[in-house]
Amino acid sequence: MFHIGINGCNNVQLEGVHIRAPANSPNTDGIHIQFSNNIAISGSTISTGDDCISIGPGTHHLRVEYVRCGPGHGIR
């Protein structure tokens, strides 16, 4: 399950996003990105039971800064 899915997008900017799911909830990725280009995520807090940000195939030019992740697996 993805809280936010970015699929086949260009020039997306997410700032100040706050996502929360229970720490023991499996498969709760905060943001999933695939087949997208020029994506920026900044100034956000993502607390999920799985990946904070998951990066799928076809993702190019991704910038992540000032993002607080946890307790999940982080960015991968």
Helix-strand topology string:
EEEEEEEE
Q: What is the overall shape?
A: globular
Strand content: over 45%
What low-confidence regions span 5 or more consecutive residues with pLDDT below 50?
A: none
SS content category:
mainly beta
Number of distinct helices: 0
User: How many strand units?
Assistant: 8
The radius of gyration is 11 Å
Measured as a percent range, the helix fraction is under 10%
Strand order of the largest sheet: 1-4-6-8
The first-to-last residue Cα distance is: 15 Å
What is the average per-residue confidence, as pLDDT, rounded to a whole number?
94
Sheet of most strands: 4 strands, parallel
Structural features, described:
The chain has 76 residues and is mainly β. Helix content is 0%, strand content 64%. The chain has strands at residues 2-7, 10-15, 18-20, 29-34, 37-47, 51-55, 60-69, 74-75. The strands form 2 sheets. A 4-stranded parallel beta sheet has the order 1-4-6-8, with no helix packed on it. The two termini are 15 Å apart. The mean pLDDT is 94.
What is shown here, in short?
With 76 residues, the chain is mainly beta. 0% of the residues lie in helices and 64% in strands.
